[in-house]
Write a sequence for this structure.
C-alpha cells in the first residue's frame, strides 16, 4: 500500500481509502464490518463514512469494524465522518452521535460536508457549523476539521484559501478534472504552507522574551543550539553549536534552578527546562 501525506493534517493516509457509502445488505452489520476489517488488513487506513449513508447504517458498520481494528492494533487507522448541517448545535449533536456509533473517542477527520454553493458556505459559517467543528477540535473530539465539496474549482480554491480546513475531499477524475483543477492547485499550496509551518513548530526564534533569567542562563543561545536537534542534525551538532558558536558549557545549563519563569514568558511555549536538561545530558555523555 502507498501512503501519502494528507493536506495539512500531518497524517499519512493510504492512497486507496475505504468509502462507506455502498454497503449491501445493510442490516448485516457484522458481515459488512468483516469487509471493512479485511481492507484494513490489506493496508487501508482511511475509512470514510457519514450519517445517512446506507440506510443510516454505515457509521454503525464502520463502528463495528473499529472494534476489530483496535483489537488487532497492528496499524494506525483513521475514521472520517461528516455533518451537512449549518446550525452549530445540530452539528454538535450529529458529531456526538457519530462518536457513539463509531466507537471512537475522537473523529480523525470531521468534514463540513457537501458544500454546493458559496452561499451555502456562508451559511455554514453564519449558522455556527464551522465554529462548532473547531470547538470540538479544541476539546479533542475531532483531530482535523476538513471539508467535502462539489464546488467548481475556483470557488473551492477561494474557500480553501480562507485557511479554515486542514484537508479536502473532492471528486477529481478524467471526467471532471478541468472543472476542479484550481481547487487542487489551491489545496497543494495550502498543504505546502502547513508543512512548512509545522516543520518550524517547536523552534526557538531567538526573540529573547524569556529573559532575564535569575540564574543568568543564556536561554536563547541554549535553545538555538537545541534547534539543531529539531533540524534533524546529530547530537554532535548541538554540542558544536553550543561550544564553538556560543562559547557555552554544561555548567551554563546546569545553573538553571527550574523555576519555570522563562517558560511562562516564552512566545513559542517551549519546554525550556526539559531542553536544558537534554543539553546537559548530551554534553555529559560526550565527556565520558
Ligand atoms: S527555569 Fe531555569 S532557565 Fe528558566 S528562568 Fe528559571 S532558572 Fe532561568
Ligand atoms: S522566548 Fe522562547 S522562542 Fe523566544 S528566545 Fe526565549 S526560548 Fe526562544
Amino acid at each position: 500500500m502507498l501512503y501519502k501525506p494528507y493536506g495539512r493534517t500531518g497524517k499519512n493516509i493510504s492512497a486507496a481509502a475505504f468509502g462507506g457509502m455502498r454497503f449491501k445488505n445493510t442490516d448485516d452489520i457484522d458481515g459488512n464490518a468483516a469487509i471493512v476489517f479485511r481492507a484494513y488488513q490489506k493496508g487501508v487506513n482511511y475509512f470514510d463514512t457519514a450519517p445517512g449513508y446506507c440506510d443510516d447504517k454505515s457509521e454503525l458498520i464502520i463502528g463495528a469494524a473499529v472494534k476489530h481494528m483496535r483489537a488487532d492494533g497492528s496499524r494506525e487507522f483513521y475514521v472520517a465522518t461528516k455533518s451537512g448541517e449549518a446550525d452549530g448545535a445540530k452539528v454538535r449533536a450529529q458529531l456526538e452521535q457519530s462518536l457513539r456509533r463509531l466507537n471512537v473517542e475522537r473523529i480523525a477527520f470531521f468534514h463540513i460536508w457537501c458544500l454546493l454553493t458559496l452561499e451555502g458556505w456562508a451559511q455554514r459559517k453564519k449558522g455556527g457549523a464551522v465554529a462548532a467543528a473547531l470547538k470540538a477540535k479544541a476539546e479533542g473530539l475531532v483531530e482535523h476539521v476538513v471539508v467535502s465539496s462539489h464546488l467548481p474549482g475556483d470557488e473551492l480554491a477561494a474557500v480553501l484559501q480562507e485557511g479554515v480546513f486542514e484537508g479536502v475531499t473532492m471528486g477529481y477524475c478524467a471526467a471532471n478534472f478541468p472543472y476542479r483543477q484550481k481547487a487542487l492547485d489551491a489545496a497543494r499550496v495550502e498543504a505546502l504552507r502547513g508543512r512548512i509551518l509545522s516543520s518550524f513548530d517547536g523552534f526557538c526564534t531567538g526573540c529573547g522574551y524569556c529573559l532575564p533569567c535569575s540564574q543568568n542562563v543564556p536561554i536563547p543561545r541554549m535553545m538555538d543550539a537545541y534547534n539543531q536537534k529539531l533540524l534533524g542534525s546529530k547530537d554532535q551538532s548541538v554540542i558544536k553549536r553550543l561550544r564553538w558558536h556560543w562559547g557555552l558549557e554544561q555548567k551554563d545549563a546546569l545553573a538553571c534552578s527550574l523555576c519555570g519563569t522563562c517558560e511562562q514568558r516564552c512566545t513559542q511555549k517551549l519546554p525550556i527546562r526539559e531542553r536544558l536538561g537534554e543539553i546537559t545530558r548530551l554534553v555529559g555523555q560526550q565527556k565520558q
About this structure: The chain has a mean pLDDT of 90.
